[in-house]
UniProtKB/TrEMBL annotation:
This is DUF1062 domain-containing protein. InterPro entries: DUF1062. It comes from the Bacteria. It holds the Pfam family DUF1062. It comes from Plantactinospora alkalitolerans.
């Protein structure tokens, strides 16, 4: 029997970045962009607010680009402060690298299992899909989805009753499957 689970975002992740004002290390995307067009060049920042003191940080999205090279559709979304665009840009590896930030997905996702009626089967294959690249520990997901203590999940792995082609003890952010035998 094959079941599908899905890891889905429930809100925007926080941005890990040190605040120069209060030394907090988390910023929340404000949902607003700042666009500065100067002659033929354009700069775009995504504005984020320190979760502790409210200080504004600017995350560079576009730097000294020629206006003509920017898709008009993107400009419209920037001017409209499109919330979907904030989510896309936060998760864009190029934006993350350019600003030397990472994301904090704690409390920003949930696991959809479609119910627990399958858990009494002798053997189940579960396919876990990620709606966004959210780094999670498979061991934690399996404990939550199968309603088992973490120690029991570790024991099942050690006993060869919980198997996968991926390493279940680390962190993952892409689709995987596992088999649970009772
Ligand atoms: Zn601060």
């Amino acid at each position: 029997m094959l079941k599908n689970w899905m890891v889905v975002p429930t809100c925007l992740p926080l941005v890990r970045r040190r605040c120069h004002t209060c030394a907090s290390e988390r910023f929340r995307a404000s949902g607003k962009f700042r666009v500065n067009a100067n002659h033929k060049l354009i700069d775009v920042w995504l504005l984020a607010l320190c979760t502790a003191c409210g200080e504004t940080a600017k995350l560079t999205v576009l730097e000294r680009m020629t206006v003509r090279s920017v898709r008009p559709e993107l400009l419209d979304r920037l001017h409209d402060n499109d919330p979907g665009l904030t989510a896309e840009l936060l998760q864009d590896p190029v934006v993350q690298r350019r600003n030397r930030v990472a994301l904090d997905w704690d409390d920003a996702w949930r696991l959809d299992t479609g119910g627990s009626d399958h858990l009494d089967r002798e053997v189940i294959d579960i396919s876990v899909r990620f709606a966004a690249r959210i780094p999670v520990r498979p061991v934690r997901l399996i404990a939550e989805g199968c309603d088992l203590p973490r120690a029991e999940v570790d024991r099942l792995i050690a006993a060869g009753k919980l198997v996968s082609a991926v390493r279940l003890s680390g962190k993952l952010s892409s689709d995987f499957t596992f088999t649970l035998k009772r």
